[in-house]
């Protein structure tokens, strides 16, 4: 893992989560612009395979659809990543399940527009909801969330429990992790790095996202620690042996404990350990697919 990737992962789990921790606002008007696929039957009510550009609150977001039937699976990547992160999973998952699969680029990543100002969870959840609405997804979805996307999934599920049939949380950022001592520890480590980024003459897209998210880090994480996952929504919890904090034994153990505590809080949550780094979807795609299939069969 190179230095910039490690910055996005190590800080991304902690810093790019910051704006996700407030209560979500109401989505603005949204309009969909699509490039339909020739494989979509005439008159079909399902979105075509391909990229669909959604406009929400003045910015455009790229939603990528693999057409299918029956269930809808939404794959959401972690901090600093875009929809291409799921490249190893989408084709075999489509063959194995026949489901409709949706990946997307959150604001500031991939083909989606950047949004100025602090990164806020109400914007992220509004974008996801707008995308599903404009694509005509009305049934329950299975949320698959990696790393930072765990917080998007948590707030989306809380606000829209009728739209979520289950979840696979892949080394996801969960509320249990963000105790006051852990927040203080992270702030102490990351503040100098953020200040160094601000001093640079030019910044990459991920670096701008890190700075935007750091602005609200502490209050957002205090708030997120009080949030609970809806008990009506079952979840598989996959935790890596490496965690996002390789090299820091206390942080690694706290991450693992938080995942186990979350899983133990309800009878319909399963804890699965992956012998891998934090990048479980890249290193153990078959394991992720297996857990998705299990959730689809159960519900």
TrEMBL record:
Extract the Gene3D superfamilies matched here.
alpha/beta hydrolase
Q: Where is the composition biased (Low complexity)?
A: 36-50
UniProt keyword list: Signal
Q: Which residues form the AB hydrolase-1 domain?
A: 74-223
One family from Pfam that matches here is: Abhydrolase_1
The segments labelled Disordered in the record are 26-51
Keyword Ubl conjugation, does the record have it?
Answer: no
Task: Identify the InterPro entries for this entry.
Answer: AB_hydrolase_1 (IPR000073), AB_hydrolase_fold (IPR029058), AB_hydrolase_sf (IPR050266), TAT_signal (IPR006311)
Range of residues in the leader sequence? 1-32
Q: Which residues form a coiled coil?
A: none
Q: Which PANTHER family match?
A: HYDROLASE, PUTATIVE (AFU_ORTHOLOGUE AFUA_2G14860)-RELATED, MONOACYLGLYCEROL LIPASE
> Under which name does UniProt file this protein?
AB hydrolase-1 domain-containing protein
Q: Which organism is it from?
A: Kineosporia mesophila
